[in-house]
Amino acid sequence: MATVLGALIGIPLGASVGLRARPTARLFRIVLYTLYALPPVLAGLLGYLVLSRSGPLGGLDLLFTPTAIVLVETLLTTPIIAGLTVAALTEVPATVRDAVNASGASPARATLTIVSEARLGVTAGILVAFGRALAEVAGALMVGGNIRHETRTLGTSILQSTNQGDFGLAMALGGLLLGLALFTVLVVVRIQRVDRGGGAP
Amino acid sequence: MRVTVALLLLCGCLASGDAVTLGATTTLDDSGLLDALVDSFEAQTQWRVSAVIGPTGETLERAHRGDVDLVLSHSPRREQGLLDSGHASERVEIMFSRFVLVGPSSDPAGLSSATNATDAAQRIVDARHPFVSRGDHSGTHDKELELWALTGADVATFDSTWYKETGTGQAATLRVGAHLDAYVLADEPTWIQMNTLGRTGDLQSFSLADETLRNPYALLRLPQQSQHKAGATQLFEWLQGPDAATIIDDFRIGPSEPFTSAGGSVA
């Protein structure tokens, strides 16, 4: 029972492409916050329709591959990371933002610095998104197809085992999934502690 | 991070390279026969098989959209529909199992005295004792609807106090049936599998010798061009051949061998 761990870890990274530093764009925020409620099964269906051979991107032959799952998870994690980043950025004091902007740094550099100031909140967003992707089932099932040895994730495996009445296995897989999450969180917390000890702002 | 994404995309492309995508129905997977057949085929050829499992309705829809290279399902009526519309180019029956009606050992509907399948179905309708349906456009669901039609009853009038639709696979439906002490129409292999594993509660099967309960599995060959056409053809031929037939006939669940190969008779 192969699990697509690499893909699940890569998703939050890929999704950080969605980081935005535009705390003034209200429409953006409304859209982002609404997308928090994007049902994974809907994301899966959209992914399926797009990647299907009779769909617009069918030629890429990505349906039922781990890549397809990564894409759908990215669709689900990006709004979360983006939205929570926006919230985190509003916490950055205006004085700090003004100082950075007035320092003569390039816009890219300035953005990077400001985002760095908000990194606790941003990290929180990434952790939430990671949790979402790790736990996701319906979307992965739709575009991945739960294929043995290929696109079976921890989530879809738990669903399958439950359906077949093998509750022992389902619980064990669930424990494994949570263990994975715990491990990741411990690593992140460690990094944060080192970071804070090193150079507190 | 961009490198990670690029690597993942690359892996994805490689993964779909030399695999035949087989759309198969849940009853084949739940019984374990599909894995046995796929493992043997992969061991004998250089092709990999990506088996995408779903109820017949979903599987045939995937075929319709060209997302699978080959189909193995068990709903003759729907399969014929795909042939007629040109979405499938050929249909070959390769094996069959049986459907079985299961229910509580107390048998409130009196199925143990039923003479045939239609009689049994009529008794369930009359008794209005809980019946759990697949409700998911699967081959099993189609057969169930066929039984109701034979009694002349209208499924639309079935009260949800006794007629429960799960919309899920065979194994899951049996579990719900076990929990509710209800009657269920199941394919025999999955029933034996679940029963042997002790997941069917108080349910027992009622033997009914009736051709109506025959459950034929057919291969559907699809006409669209795909890069895996050679593999699909090879799998298509192999599943009709002697190696597959042996696996099918000898496939054992508990004390039974519930599948019988058809020797490749064309429908």
Protein model, in words:
The complex is a heterodimer of chains A (201) and B (267). Chain A has 201 residues and is mainly alpha-helical. Helix content of chain A is 72%, strand content 0%. Chain A has 10 helices and no strands. Chain A has helices at residues 5-15, 26-35, 40-51, 66-90, 94-102, 107-117, 119-135, 138-144, 154-163, 167-198. The longest helix of chain A has 32 residues, at 167-198. The N and C termini of chain A lie far apart (46 Å). The model of chain A is unreliable at 1-19 (pLDDT under 50). With 267 residues, chain B is of the alpha/beta class. Helix content of chain B is 43%, strand content 22%. Chain B has helices at residues 2-15, 26-31, 33-44, 56-64, 76-85, 117-127, 139-151, 170-180, 188-196, 229-240, 242-250, and strands spanning 19-25, 48-54, 70-73, 90-104, 131-133, 163-165, 183-187, 203-206, 214-221, 260-261. In chain B, strands 1, 2, 3, 4, 5, 6, 7, 8, 9 and 10 form a 10-stranded mixed β-sheet that branches. The N and C termini of chain B lie far apart (54 Å). Classes of the chains: A mainly alpha (201), B alpha/beta (267). At the A-B interface, helix 1 and helix 4 of A face helix 1, strand 2 and helix 8 of B.
Distance between the termini of chain B: 54 Å
What is the largest interface, and how many residues per chain?
A-B, 31 and 32 residues
Cα-atom radius of gyration of chain B: 20 Å
What is the tally of beta strands of chain A? Answer: 0
Order of helices and strands of chain A: HHHHHHHHHH
**DSSP helix count of chain A?**
10
Envelope shape of chain A: globular
Strand content of chain B: 15-25%
Low-confidence stretches of chain B: 1-16
Low-confidence runs of at least 5 consecutive residues of chain A: 1-19
Shape of chain B: globular
Main beta-sheet annotation of chain A? none
Secondary-structure content class of chain A? mainly alpha
Proportion of strand residues of chain A: under 5%
How many strands, what sense, and barrel or not for the largest sheet of chain B? 10 strands, mixed
Give the oligomeric state.
Answer: heterodimer
- Measured on Cα atoms, how large is the radius of gyration of chain A? 19 Å
Structural class of chain B: alpha/beta
Helical coverage of chain B, percent range: 40-55%
Q: Got a strand count of chain B? A: 10
